[in-house]
Amino acid sequence: MLDLFTIFSKGGIVLWCFQSTSQIFTPSVNALIRSVILQERTGNNSFDHNALTLKYKLDNEFELVFVVAYQKILQLSYVDKFLNDIHLEFRDKYKNDLQNGRHFQVR
C-alpha cells in the first residue's frame, strides 16, 4: 500500500499530492530533496529514510519530481511501473501547460 504519492517541481511547487495516512512525510521528502536531488545523486531511484522507502522519478525536461513513499518492510514490485505510467500520463495531459509555465492554472 502506498502511503504518499506527490508530484512537485524542482522549484518546490507541489502540483499534486495524495496521502493515505495521517503520518507526516515532510521530513522524509525533505531528506530526499537534500540528500539526492540537490546533490544530483540520482543514479538510483530509491531512497530510504527512517521506516520509509521513497521511490522517485525525475523529469528533467519540465523539472518535475514524482515521489512514492511506502513502508520499508514492504516489497512493492509495481511501484516502478506505476511511476513510469503516471509520469507519461501527466506529461501527455499537461504538456502544453508545462511548456508554457502555467503551473497554477485552475481547470
From TrEMBL:
All residue ranges annotated as the Signal recognition particle receptor alpha subunit N-terminal domain in the record: 28-99
One of the Pfam families matching this protein, by short name: SRP-alpha_N
InterPro entries (UniProt xref): Longin-like_dom_sf (IPR011012), Sig_recog_particle_rcpt_asu_N (IPR007222)
Highest taxon, organism lineage: Eukaryota
SUPFAM superfamilies assigned to the protein according to its UniProt record, in alphabetical order: SNARE-like
Name the UniProt record assigns to this protein: Signal recognition particle receptor alpha subunit N-terminal domain-containing protein
Organism for this UniProt entry: Dryococelus australis
